[in-house]
Amino acid sequence: MSLWLLASSTLWAAAPAQQYQQLRSQATLLAVNALLYFDADPRAQPDARHLASVREAQQRLDALALQLNLPADMGDSLASLNAWLDDLQAVRRDEAPRYPQLLIGLLDSRAQLDRQSDAAYQQVQADLQPVVRLLNRQSLDIASLLLHAQARSARVLGDHSLAYSEVEFTARDQAIEEGFVQLIALLPEQADTLHKQRLAYRFVRQRLLDRDPGRVTGSLERYLAGIVVALDKLAAR
Fold this sequence. Notes:
mainly alpha, 74% helix, globular
């Protein structure tokens, strides 16, 4: 089955509220992997799996856009995201110092799409069960801290619309911890899986919360991207 068909069939089939949720998380994971792959150091040898993840997320976003019949403003934001990605892929590796400015544009387009998707989600989420809304919030909080950490490592944090205040940063971390506690209590049949996800988050938590730039690596993405997708799939059930 092609990636497009996979994206548009059983894996991502869901009510509109969950499709907007997936639109937000997939756009965030696209940005995370773009930050990892388009390393500004010309000597870097980025992992091609991150580019494959970018393209897979892009196909899923396009499929979700068709399913949701996005309004013009959201369609424009998604088109802008895709355009920045096209520009990044057109830059040769020996011109890698050009990547950060293009990444900032991509991140700003993602932020605009995220705000629009959130507004659309709020309009249609009234009938969702509280546990589903909690799963959605948990997924987005983890994805947002992952994106924040990768933007910091890529040294573009503060130059675009992602930067958080200290209060916002601490609040998201606390919400994630509390979210796991609540989800484990509400979903006893998923307790083992959720407990493992909580341990994985705690394992990388210090790196997520570290305010200093670090070296661009894919270790945080390997630990957390799967959790984001798993929480979305569980909510869609």
